C-alpha cells in the first residue's frame, strides 16, 4: 500500500463529483428538502405518531440514509463504468497501482461524496427539526459502513454493466423499493403483523433502524445483529471486488 498512489486515485474521484455539483450534491439536497417538507412537515403534522417522538424526527434518519445510499452507489458505479467505457481503466491496471489501491480509491471517493451529501441534508434538516444525536459514535459507524457497502455494490455493478441504462437498474428496481418498504416513512408496528417477518428480511430496514437509534434513541430491530451483518457484508464484498480486479473480469477487453 502506497499512500501517495492511493491519494492520487482518491483525489481524482473526489474531483470528479466536485466538477458536477448540481448533479452530485445540489440535486440530492433539493430532493431531501422536498421529502422533509412533504413527509416530515406537511403530512407529519397530521399524523398522530409516537407519544414522545415527532413524525419528522422519525422519518429524517431514513431520508438521510436514502441520500447516503444513492450518493455512494452512484459515485462508484458511474465512475468505474465511465473508466471502462473510455478504456482509461487499462492505464490504471498497467500503472504501479495495486488492485487494493485502485479499489480503495474508488471507495474513499464514493464515501466522501456520500458524507458531503449527508452533511448537506443534515444542515437542511436543522431548519425543520432538532436533528439531535442519541449516540454519536454509532451514528458515524452507520454512516461509514453503509457508504462503504454501497460503494462496493456500485463497483460490482460498474464492472457488470455493458450499457449506461444498466447502472440504473439496481437502483430503480431493487434499492429504491427496498428503501420505501424499509421503515423510512413508517414504523413496523403500522404494518400487519403477518408481514413483519418480511420487513425483517430487508437489509435496508436494519440500516435505517440503526441510524434512527443513533439519532433519536428509538429502535425496532436487534442493533447488534444488524451491525455485524453490515460489517460482514462489507468485508465479503471487498474481497469479491478485489478478486474480480485481479482476474480482470470485464476490465481487460
Structural class: mainly alpha
Q: Spans with pLDDT under 50 lasting ≥5 residues?
A: none
Helix content: over 70%
Tally of individual domains: 1
Quick one: how many beta strands? Answer: 0
Strand content: under 5%
Distance between the termini: 27 Å
Rounded average pLDDT: 92
Indicate the overall shape: elongated
The biggest beta sheet, please? none
One letter per element, helices H and strands E, the order comes to HHHHHHHHHH
User: How many distinct helices?
Assistant: 10
> What's the gyration radius in Å?
19 Å
Organism: Candidatus Uhrbacteria bacterium CG_4_9_14_3_um_filter_50_9
InterPro entries: ABC-2_transport_permease, ABC2_TM, ABC2_TM_bact-type, ABC_2_transport
Membrane topology: Multi-pass membrane protein
Keywords: Cell membrane, Membrane, Transmembrane, Transmembrane helix, Transport
Amino acid at each position: 500500500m502506497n499512500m501517495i498512489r492511493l491519494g492520487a486515485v482518491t483525489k481524482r474521484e473526489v474531483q470528479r463529483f466536485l466538477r458536477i455539483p448540481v448533479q452530485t450534491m445540489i440535486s440530492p439536497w433539493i430532493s431531501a428538502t422536498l421529502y422533509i417538507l412533504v413527509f416530515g412537515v406537511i403530512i407529519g403534522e397530521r399524523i398522530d405518531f409516537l407519544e414522545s417522538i415527532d413524525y419528522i424526527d422519525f422519518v429524517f434518519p431514513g431520508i438521510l440514509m436514502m441520500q447516503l445510499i444513492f450518493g455512494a452507489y452512484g459515485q462508484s458505479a458511474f465512475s468505474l463504468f465511465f473508466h471502462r467505457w473510455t478504456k482509461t481503466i487499462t492505464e490504471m491496471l498497467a500503472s504501479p497501482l495495486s488492485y487494493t489501491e485502485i479499489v480503495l480509491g474508488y471507495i474513499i471517493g464514493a464515501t466522501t461524496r456520500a458524507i458531503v451529501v449527508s452533511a448537506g441534508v443534515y444542515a437542511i434538516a436543522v431548519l425543520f427539526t432538532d436533528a439531535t444525536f442519541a449516540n454519536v459514535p454509532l451514528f458515524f459507524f452507520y454512516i461509514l459502513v453503509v457508504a462503504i457497502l454501497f460503494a462496493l455494490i456500485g463497483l460490482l455493478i460498474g464492472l457488470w454493466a455493458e450499457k449506461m441504462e444498466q447502472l440504473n437498474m439496481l437502483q430503480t428496481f431493487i434499492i429504491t423499493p427496498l428503501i420505501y418498504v424499509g421503515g423510512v416513512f413508517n414504523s413496523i408496528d403500522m404494518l400487519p403483523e403477518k408481514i413483519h417477518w418480511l420487513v425483517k428480511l430487508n437489509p435496508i430496514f436494519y440500516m435505517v433502524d440503526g441510524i434512527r437509534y443513533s439519532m433519536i434513541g428509538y429502535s425496532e430491530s436487534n442493533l447488534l445483529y444488524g451491525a455485524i451483518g453490515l460489517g460482514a457484508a462489507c468485508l465479503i464484498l471487498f474481497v469479491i471486488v478485489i478478486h474480480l480486479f485481479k482476474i480482470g473480469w470485464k476490465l481487460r477487453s
